[in-house]
Design a protein that fits this description.
The chain is α/β, with parallel strands linked by helices. It is about 40% helix and about 10% strand. It folds into two domains: about 45 residues; about 290 residues, Spore Coat Polysaccharide Biosynthesis Protein SpsA, Chain A (Alpha-Beta Complex), CATH 3.90.550. The strands form two sheets. The chain has a seven-stranded mixed β-sheet, sandwiched between helices. A two-stranded antiparallel ribbon has the order 2-3.
Length: about 375
């Protein structure tokens, strides 16, 4: 029989063996903790790269809905208040948008949002720089009659707003200039926001579809519809829209006594730049006033995006007597299915979509061909 000391010795040796194995062996506690932490961090990074940033090198898939469904004839007919929808896509690469850790936007994300235009039956003018993106937009719009789409290939260097790039870059490089992602960090982003009004002006001058209204629509305005089974739709001016006004979504109440400098440097927003609506004449007037305001502010050492510029334009200090009055549309939480910031920034777009849907007893169904 084993005596007590021998039993204790064996147990002690066994404990030391197990302890050493966990501390220094293949499955040591340190290694297990490190491996688990590495695995969890990898999952978090993969999730955010795929679903938050959409960091993918290929184009998103496109739904060719016309292979199984047919659009009703009446949705393709021009309305008396038909609008030309103007949009633009410039590949700005991956950039930070907001202060959150993974608040980045990628080209893939914008290309995914672009797919909503495949079911928007408006007449659309799209300004696109890259040949690959031109082909993608053609595929997205391929189920709609070709007469509803005009694609204009552009070079950002030829856009008037990008002439300000050196001055804006120099301004943003100052350590003392307020930094907001991406507004005052990426000068190309600011120029792209100003360039919206370059292409709006060009479209209103050329008037390719001979429509009474023009509307700027951000690629991401109807982003919430992407990936959902939504029917064909159009956007038309809201009921009783005053043709002598220019329409925006209201983000926050306006304070006209603020100084333009405070608005620009503190990123104070009154209306959203996601959609701009006006008749041809008033759109031309507004775009010209806007571009002059950008230069006026830049001469004062001030720059931000279009939302801050418009707020500054309509302050008591900067407003000109001939400026067009703004009609700001305000949506409440839950209205038209909009929640959070979307209810403020995207309101007008959904009001225009709803104005069309009210002309049809039910949401426009797609019937099988």
């Amino acid at each position: 029989m084993l005596d007590f000391d021998e039993i204790v010795g064996k147990l002690r040796r066994r404990w030391i063996t197990i302890h050493m194995a966990f501390r220094y062996g293949r499955w040591s506690v340190r290694r297990l903790i490190f491996s688990s932490a590495f695995f969890i961090c990898s999952l978090v990074l993969i999730y955010n790269f795929r679903f938050a940033i959409d960091l993918l090198p290929w184009n998103p898939s496109v739904d060719h809905w016309c292979e199984r469904e047919k659009a009703p004839d009446y949705i393709l007919q021009p309305e008396s208040d038909e609008m030309t929808v103007v949009t633009m896509f410039l590949d700005l690469g991956i950039f930070k948008k907001g202060e959150q850790r993974f608040a980045y936007h990628s080209p893939y994300k914008y290309r995914s949002w672009m797919r909503v235009f495949g079911r928007m039956a408006n007449r659309v003018v799209a300004y696109i720089e890259n040949e690959n993106d031109i082909q993608l937009f053609k595929e997205i719009r391929s189920c709609l009659p070709p007469m509803l789409t005009k694609i204009v290939k552009i070079d950002r260097k030829s856009l008037p707003s990008f002439k300000h790039l050196p001055a804006i870059r120099k301004l943003y490089s100052r350590p003392s200039y307020p930094k907001y992602y991406p507004n005052t960090v990426y000068p190309e982003y600011s120029c792209a926001m100003h360039a919206k009004y370059d292409v709006l002006e060009q479209s209103a001058i050329e008037d390719p579809f001979q429509t009474p209204y023009f509307a700027w629509v951000d690629i991401g305005l109807f982003r919430n519809l992407d990936g959902t089974n939504f029917p064909l739709f159009k956007i038309v001016p809201p009921e009783k829209f005053n043709p002598e006004r220019i329409g925006f979504s209201q983000v926050w109440p306006q304070d006209p006594v603020l100084s333009p400098e405070k608005i620009i440097k503190e990123k104070l927003v009154w209306v959203s730049g996601s959609m701009v609506l006006a008749t041809q004449e008033y759109m031309l007037n507004f775009t010209r006033d806007y571009k002059l305001a950008v230069k006026e502010l830049l001469d004062q050492g001030l720059s931000n995006t279009d939302q801050e510029v418009i707020n500054a334009m309509y302050t008591g200090k900067m407003r000109k007597p001939h400026y067009i009055k703004i009609k700001a549309y305000l949506c409440h939480q839950g209205q038209l299915g909009l929640y959070g910031p979307d209810a403020r920034y995207f309101c007008l777009g959904y009001v225009c979509k709803h104005a069309w849907e009210k002309r049809v007893p039910q949401p426009v169904p797609l019937r099988k061909s």
